[in-house]
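Hi V.,

You were right to ask for the full record rather than a summary. Here it is.
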Amino acid sequence: MLRKLMIRFTGDGDYFREIDEERNYFLIEAEEIVEKIRNRLVKEKRVAAPKPFEFWINGKLAVISHVNFERKESLQKQLEQTILTFDSWDEGIRYKYVNLLKEYAEEERQLFLNREFHAFAVRYDQMFGNPAYEPFPLILDITHLNQLYGAVQKHVTTGFYSELEKIMESIQTAFNKLAIDAYEKESVNQQEGFQKKKEMTEKEVIATIRDEAGFQRIIQYLVACYQSVTKSRIEALCPHFRPYQELQDVLFKKVTKVRKFSDAYNVHVLMNKEIEEKFDSIMYQGFALGTDEMVESLVLSPVVQKYKGIVKGLLEGGVLVGDGSK
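Predicted structure:
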């Protein structure tokens, strides 16, 4: 978890339709929700019990408090009072947390003045902060989110809100690639179980995000991905890309006559894997592949050309890497 400041409402107490108890709320967002509930209760002329919530700071649970809807003070002010009267901490710790709360809240408040960023940050957390998100939730700090937003927003040519889901899809693609790379790196140690590898993968992903150069590389991938045709287009383009199909014909009609079928199939698998890796490599460079023609010329063509030589070697009796047969 990378978030500096977070509010999690618990499942205890009354149910409020405005609150999603699975969410990791930004403080300013939580205050807006509390105000909506307070106004609704006034209109309905009823009283509700205080709602408990967890206060997380710098990735750690600091204190469990509650918001009283009958009081006029904001959630932040009520939380500050809870902290200042928390007997388990000495005075220095109490004021330390209050000062951090004020500092982080002000940072949030200033960034959330931008309504587009507000929508971006909330939608991000709804998708990627959800506890059920696989392979694991990725709760980013607001400063990281602002960097992501700033990088992609400048490339939005139509309405931002109409593009928001496409932006989220691009973020998902970038983070999935990051997670896959991290998992493959950790899978070098085959003795570790799946759950242990998953935990190590999450640590590797977080370490990459915390590293400035690593995070900038993710941003480059994201921005390029947002401006490009989707990676899934490769699967649709290959059957219609003549050099690819010609090579497939040679593999499965000629190579299989002089070599084992598995040899031809392995080359097929390796080539397709390298095509995807070529696409990813270009994304990491921040170069957008905005048309099918660009994918064909910059991704498919160079990889297919390389494998023409490999297939030619197989026909001439060459040995596959890791294969001792002729």
